[in-house]
Amino acid sequence: MSTKAAQPQREQWGSRLGFLMAAIGSAIGLGNIWRFPAVTYEHGGGAFLIPYLAALLTAGIPLLILEYTIGRKYRSSPPGALRKLAKPAEAIGWWQVAICFVVATYYAAILAWAVRYTGFSFDQAWGDDPEGFLNNDFLKLNETPGEVSTFVPGVAWPLVAVWVLTLVVLAFGVRRGIERANIVFIPLLVGFFLVLVVRALTLDGATEGLNALFTPDWGALSEGSVWVAAYGQIFFSLSVGFGIMITYASYLHRKSDLSGSAMVAAFANSSFEILAGVAVFATLGFMAQAAGVGVADVTSSGVGLAFVAFPQIISEMPMGALFGVLFFVSLVIAGLTSLISIVQVIVAAVQDRTGLARVPAVLGVGGAVALVSLLLFANDSGLYFLDTADHFINQYGIALAGLVLLITVSWGLRKLPALQRNADATSSVGLGRWWRICLGVITPVVLTWMMVDSLRHELDENYGGYSTDFLLWAGWGVAGGALLVGVVLALVFRRKPAADHPEPADRPDPVDPPERSS
């Protein structure tokens, strides 16, 4: 029996709808709900939508198409797919896997908090001091960042529940697990959020909140930081740069439409972000009016928005318990679909490299990530670890990995023309020269500027006011460690496994049109 015949057939999505739901589920996450509204408000309000749309068209959609094409063409997780592009590029793939490992550990912790806050919403357990309740009663936050002295059972048990649910979905596979889960979760999420939007719009002060969000500051368009913020939001919200879309696309049928699917996923993600902005700022308008202050005085993002500002709002609004349950359940669903996609990158890489069956791979990978997640975030310094890891892995992990991938593919290997032909062969919308210009020039320049600008701020003052010693290992150590792990894994696995031999790197793809003679 030949080696090729002995290889198990790669899983495939059951339908285009299933793939789209999974891709949309991965893109729609916590950042859509608690990052986009604040970024929009701080960078020109309604005027921000112009650079946002420009970033979507010149970076978001082109990057999605690139990752879809690489995944479908080479039918492997990031390390295997990039190895088939060029052997040295495999390190980028393992770097992305390491990034996914880090992100998964703290992303699950946030979902565990949202699970608990769903229950807290029924009786407003946070009382009159939501911030004190979060830090002291719930997280039992240590006064010294990085100093661990107490295990927090109230975080540990929902964290275990989040991991069990995630791994059960993954264990059922791509079609029976991930696809079916997203087909249920995404309509449920949209339904819950529409109810939230309707309720928020009926609150006193909602109009003031929406005016604050959408009133355009046209002068902001002349500021470079606004355009950089738009590209940053698109980059971080579409799940590009750390291997998720390469992995998901590796399960596509050979003749799947790539450009059309990317546009649907990208615009669905952006539509949900705008929906989230309406819900959040209508609610903040109510809070501002109740407190007799301006919307600017109550605007926040991230953990502060979800677990401090919203609990306070829930306590003051009519039918607050119902609003709270819907809000935190929506957070859980949005985060869960993203967490599943993040962990799937690691599972797929392990399967492709070792040949393990799905269940052993899921249990091995999931057990390792879940254990690290529990050790780091179910203690009294969990919030500090989460805050620094999220900041540094986003700024100097995901964004930098995406930049290196683009430079490697477009400038180093000059593979964009070949990948464009592959995508155009089965796509409803042809790419044209604009696609290569966006990926080869515009996006690398913007990402480079983001790196420079971020480093400049980093050197001016310590992030979050943390000590230099803490940031060196909890921040820079995490981001640099992910890169180091990627390089080490690429060296350890430098020999190609038998599974790769049937489809060598230079073998033409079945959907590729023939090269034109010169």
TrEMBL record:
InterPro entries for this protein: Na/ntran_symport, SNS_sf
Residues spanning the membrane: 17-36, 48-70, 91-115, 155-174, 181-201, 226-251, 263-288, 321-347, 359-378, 393-413, 434-452, 472-493
Signal peptide: none
Coiled-coil portions: none
A cellular component term, taken from the record's GO annotations: membrane
Alphabetical keyword list: Membrane, Transmembrane, Transmembrane helix, Transport
Domain of life: Bacteria
One Pfam family from the record: SNF
Name of the protein this chain belongs to: Neurotransmitter:Na+ symporter, NSS family
Organism the protein comes from: Streptomyces zhaozhouensis
